[in-house]
Write a structure and sequence with these properties.
alpha/beta, TIM Barrel, eight-stranded mixed sheet, two-stranded parallel sheet, 38% helix
């Protein structure tokens, strides 16, 4: 399938060079690089990045994702300190932390998320923190460890409609479990804003998307990103449709009507793209 004219964003290596060098020197990973994000040039030029903790090897094999799958290494105990150093050198005032799924760890890595949040809080300066988390198998103890660290935004992506889960996320993920994660987080920390993300172009139908909107709102989630799925390679799940920009605008309007307070929707929107805008929306 040929990409349409509105999907012509290019990544400039020159725009990426300074941030890539910084990250390499600090031995840090970003979702921008590991997931082959098309916005990397734009974000790195603006000295923004979404950090991946707990390594760069995922224990699950979702068919939409460009992150490497396999057996991860043990967590790096010095990683939180290096993330703090990167945040200070990049001058970030809103930090987004995500991770690969670590089903090999007893708590899924929740304690490492918490330690990273505490390390960032310690430097002061009014930095806001957003965490984009895996499902932790919906374990209440792990979710409590994370929520009690008090990030400003708790994000967990629903990704797609229920009918496509077995095709797109065959290894361990569950639509109902992801909803349980969001519900649990709202119960544990009702004052922390919840965020989720949805990819389109996988073969979903309008009524299915609207049902996802409704399901997310019922969990207490009020922040949403909606973007076009782009296959990382020919070996990944194929794109079924390229949605026009105006279709994304209609989905945004529909989501807002259904109860979301802030929605970013467009072909190149990703969960962490322009993340500081969500922070401003909750203040």
């Amino acid at each position: 399938m040929i990409k349409p004219s509105w999907l012509n964003k290019k990544i400039s290596l020159r725009d990426c060079s300074q941030v890539k060098t910084l990250l390499k020197d600090l031995r840090l990973h970003t979702v921008c690089e590991e997931a082959l994000c098309p916005n990397m040039g734009e974000c790195f030029k603006a000295r923004q990045a979404t950090f991946i903790i707990l390594g760069a090897i995922c224990t699950r094999a979702c068919r939409f994702c460009g992150v490497v799958k396999g057996q991860p290494l043990a967590p790096d105990v010095d990683e939180p300190r290096r993330i703090v150093e990167a945040v200070q050198k990049m001058g970030l005032n809103h930090v987004v932390i995500t991770s690969v799924t670590r089903d090999d760890l007893p708590d899924g890595g929740a304690s490492v998320f918490a330690e990273t949040i505490f390390s960032l809080r310690a430097i002061g300066g009014g930095i806001s923190i957003e965490v984009l988390i895996p499902d932790f198998k919906a374990d209440h103890k792990s979710l409590s460890v994370l929520a009690n660290a008090r990030p400003d935004i708790l994000a967990h992506n629903i990704e797609t409609v229920p009918s496509l889960y077995k095709k797109v996320r065959p290894a361990g993920a569950s639509y109902s479990r992801s909803l349980d994660v969001l519900r649990s987080l709202k119960n544990i920390a009702p004052k922390i804003a919840l965020k989720s993300g949805l990819m389109l172009g996988l073969g979903e139908k309008d009524d299915e998307v609207f049902k996802v909107f409704d399901d997310l709102v019922k969990t207490g989630c009020r922040l949403l990103s909606i973007g076009q799925y782009l296959a990382p390679s020919k070996n990944h799940f194929p794109v079924k449709r390229y949605l026009e920009p105006e279709v994304f605008e209609e989905y945004k309007k529909a989501a807002l009507r259904r109860g979301f307070s802030y929605v970013k929707s467009g072909p190149y929107v990703r969960s962490s793209y322009a993340a500081s805008e969500y922070r401003l929306a909750i203040k």
